Amino acid sequence: MKRVGYPSEIVELISHLKRLPGVGPKSAERIAIWLLRAKGEFAFEFSSAIRNAKEQVTFCRFCGFFESGLAGCDFCRDADRNEQCICVVEQPTDMLPIERTGAFRGFYHSLGGKISPLDNVGPEELRIDALVQRIKEGCVSEIILAVGSDVEGEATASFLADHLKRIDFGRPLSITRIAQGMPAGGGLESADELTLFRALDGRRSL
């Protein structure tokens, strides 16, 4: 006796949803059925929004952030930013948490990843050459390294700092690293040794 299952159209939809990060088979099935049962034009509007974003959004060739085909890059077209300072991050999405603090008003540069030999990601796979070109062509005086504090992030920051120091830009270039240590509201009892070490090493006068 033939087993009865979902129509092929639903099976195909579920198979696509399963490919989304964090979505397992059961979740994909629930989402698919929910979309089919959603009232009004939601499913069609949802599909249209995905297609529109895919067709219109690219990566900015300067900073690496998401760029609208209609409006361009919000960061790079902001004339009020400090062009002497560039904050280097791993991914485009890392720019937004920094931006929300309101403490930084310079430009950004996404490397598109971090050095990770286990994942076959070396310096040549990152947007390092594009960063060097921006420094050469602009009036940049400070590079802030805001990459992660894990092993790969530390390796990336160390490599990038050494690489930039070896280049003659014809002017002084300050290379700094964002401070690392105790999180706001955190107690000493919950901090690991590396966090405490960095907090002590990066202490400042009051």
How are the elements arranged and paired?
Elements: H1 8-17, H2 25-37, H3 42-56, E1 57-59, E2 66-68, E3 82-89, H4 95-101, E4 106-110, H5 128-137, E5 142-145, H6 151-165, E6 174-177, H7 193-201
Parallel strand pairs: 3-4, 3-5, 5-6
Antiparallel strand pairs: 1-2
Helix pairs in contact: 1-2
Describe the structure.
With 206 residues, the protein is α/β, with parallel strands linked by helices. 38% of the residues lie in helices and 13% in strands. The strands form 2 sheets. The chain has a 4-stranded parallel sheet with strand order 4-3-5-6, with helices on one face. A two-stranded antiparallel sheet has the order 1-2. α6 links the parallel β5 and β6. α1 crosses α2. It is extended. 16% of the residues are buried. The model has no long low-confidence stretch (mean pLDDT 91).
Core attributes:
38% helix, two-stranded antiparallel sheet, 206 residues, extended
Summarize the biggest pleated sheet.
Answer: 4 strands, parallel
Shape summary: extended
Tally of strands: 6
Q: What Rg is obtained from the alpha carbons, in whole angstroms?
A: 23 Å
If strands are numbered along the chain, what order do they take across the biggest sheet?
4-3-5-6
Given as residue ranges, the uncertain stretches (5+ residues, pLDDT < 50) are none
Beta-strand content:
5-15%
Q: Could you state the oligomeric state of the chains shown? A: single chain
Give the rounded overall mean pLDDT.
Answer: 91
- Cα distance spanning the termini: 79 Å
Helix content: 25-40%
> Which structural category fits the helices and strands?
alpha/beta
Helix tally equals 7
